[in-house]
């Protein structure tokens, strides 16, 4: 494996990076949705879903380390150049969506805290402030976020310990009877989707790993630990307060400045990854543009969108991400790890078989959501999509659009 001066990120760096990404209001908020299961069943769903989701996530990261390519560039292996353009466009949209959602969620929480503490009420201003902090994080560059992320995640670690102590001082959380209704399959799916949402960008970072094991184990441990912890805090909060609003809980517990620190730091350490990777993905269209500049533009666009975003469709947004990227990466992972297609063919414009199987996977995802299987929808859909691709690739080898010289023709 090639190793140059850029490929120097260690397992510890990745653990802190992905722990910081996992410590977010979005993860706590999603954990709160599991409250109808009760604490014990909820914990089981969190662990089971994250075991599946984080493992799938890391497989995508391994491709980035081995081939030294960003995440969406790996889709060229299966789908060709034009196919990768399609998914790059979808990924830029979902990452801008995440950037806007995270900035708005953080701004609402900060505004609620400042309104309670100092009667200062201005969500739009806080959206801009958080957006500027994210752009500052991006501007520091790779060496900068290695250094600053270490400091920020350590601070978040201390702050979330304090938050955990407040949430779990109520013993009634562990015995309170569940209220409301949610199936185990739905709960597991909500846990799998969150790490899956990072799948289209993990290789943007693991391509700089010192060794494959650094990128894989560091990312797995950092994300699994941080995300499970945040989900459990959200679950416990929603059960104790019968309200999934984590900000209100922190204010009731008189956390004050601690609450403010948790919200701002967690929003910035998570959302800068979305904005940065939106920029990296955009380079799939225009590879000669400066990476950092494009990422800063994406951070600015995300901030503007945050001023217009509607948070009421959050759960549907998660399902939309799962429907698109679960079958997509099922095909890429099958191609890379099972069929051993390690390199993208520069002559391949479109692989029609891969594209058709991907569309079938999207249809299957929404059908499996209706079936409400105990494993959720993502894992079964990825298994089915990968299996269909595996069964059909040999007899559809000619279903490709190839480039010859300056002309393109269909085989």
TrEMBL record:
GO molecular function (one): cytosine transmembrane transporter activity
Cell location: Membrane
TM annotation in the entry: 12-37, 43-64, 85-103, 123-141, 148-168, 180-199, 220-240, 246-273, 294-311, 317-338, 350-368, 374-393
Source species, domain of life: Bacteria
Membrane association type: Multi-pass membrane protein
One Gene Ontology term, aspect cellular component: plasma membrane
Any single Pfam family the record assigns to this protein: Transp_cyt_pur
Keyword field: Membrane, Transmembrane, Transmembrane helix
Alphabetized Gene3D superfamilies for the sequence: Hydantoin permease
Membership in a protein family: Belongs to the purine-cytosine permease (2.A.39) family.
Protein name in UniProt: Cytosine permease
Gene source species: Formimonas warabiya
